[in-house]
């Protein structure tokens, strides 16, 4: 029997990617909605496709924000932000929060999102998200065209219905996964 | 009519998370298999749940590795690594590469993975992965219990069959999404 599958696998070419397509070779990414506020406590939301945890003990996370974004200097100046995790049901509002600027509008009002007080920081939580990580900025690194903010987690909370034994049940939470502004969720 | 749905939504409690559960409030994460090598060119693989792109121009990515891992000092000393993106079909081998140490075994041989030469760096690509991002270390930041390596992308490639118009088609690539060592892939 001719092993056509094996042969195909052996010959399968790797295609080289142009400089502006290099990041296509990476996996899908996640999406968070970051809240921050100005010196007077006026809150803003920015959608960020650059997020990852970086330390368990102490708990720390990273988020990448471009310097020209309105939220960038709010986070820089106030030193606080909240990472809010949206489910796929929030994808339209999440997308709008990523393309509109808080310089022009109040995104909570405009998109029907509900601010609720955080426990340890001034920026509010977005009630409609399933998880909330309150952070104080402990480091900041310029990486090419973005600033990487390292946040020390000072408090965190989540909807009761997405937790199972203290862990996130992602099949219940249905977080957003994205690539090229196309939005997906997960399956087993 | 009594608005039981609205009432429930209004009362839905946010549960505060203990310090060791705080990162549960974040979304699902992605998984990459990072290749690196020692001064003699002997290659190793480490599975990393901490990965994100951080800059488009120049293309840069971040990966988090704990200092006690064998790969940590290989990357530190050699200044090069490759981010390989596995599909859900590789989940068993990916998991094994995360729990075994390259101090003890040759993971390529042990788990039946195929090294193929990279274009610009010494660590090999993992042929069975669908995407490959070759990086030179341009920055390193200690963040709690992990080191964050910032890699400048010097070359990238992907399987022809997962590309559509130069972009990754994630429904074809079926990347791994994870939380708490449970592995998922995506759906529309």
Ranges of chain A where pLDDT stays below 50 over 5 or more residues in a row are 1-5
- According to CATH, the fold-level topology of chain A is Pnp Oxidase, Chain A
Outline the biggest β-sheet of chain A: 7 strands, antiparallel
The average pLDDT score of chain A comes to 93
Proportion of residues in helical segments of chain A: 10-25%
Sheet with most strands: strand arrangement of chain A: 4-3-7-10-11-6-5
- What general outline of chain A do the C-alpha atoms trace? globular
Count of helical stretches of chain A: 5
| SS-derived structural category of chain A | alpha+beta
CATH class of chain A: Mainly Beta
End-to-end Cα distance of chain A, whole Å, is: 34 Å
**Greatest chain-chain contact:** A-B, 78 and 78 residues
> How many structural domains of chain A?
1
CATH superfamily descriptor of chain A: Electron Transport, Fmn-binding Protein, Chain A
**Any guess at the CATH architecture of chain A?**
Roll
Radius of gyration of chain A: 19 Å
What is the string of SSEs of chain A from the N terminus onward? HEEEEEEHEHHEEEEEEHEE
- Chain oligomer state: homodimer
């Amino acid at each position: 029997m001719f092993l056509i599958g094996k042969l195909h696998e052996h010959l399968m070419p790797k295609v080289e990617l142009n400089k502006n397509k290099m990041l296509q070779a990476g996996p899908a990414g996640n999406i968070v909605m970051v809240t921050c506020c100005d010196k007077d406590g006026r809150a803003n939301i920015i959608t960020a496709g650059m997020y990852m945890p970086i330390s368990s003990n102490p708990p720390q996370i990273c988020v990448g924000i471009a310097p020209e974004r309105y939220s960038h200097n709010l986070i820089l100046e106030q030193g606080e932000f909240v990472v809010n995790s949206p489910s796929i049901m929030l994808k339209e509002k999440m997308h709008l929060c990523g393309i509109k600027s808080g310089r022009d509008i109040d995104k909570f009002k405009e998109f029907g999102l509900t601010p609720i007080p955080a426990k340890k920081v001034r920026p509010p939580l977005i009630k409609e998200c399933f998880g909330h990580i309150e952070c104080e900025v402990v480091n900041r690194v310029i990486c090419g065209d973005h600033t990487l903010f390292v946040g020390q987690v000072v408090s965190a909370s989540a909807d009761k219905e997405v937790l199972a034994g203290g862990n996130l049940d992602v099949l219940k939470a249905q977080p957003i996964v994205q690539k090229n502004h196309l939005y997906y969720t997960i399956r087993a």
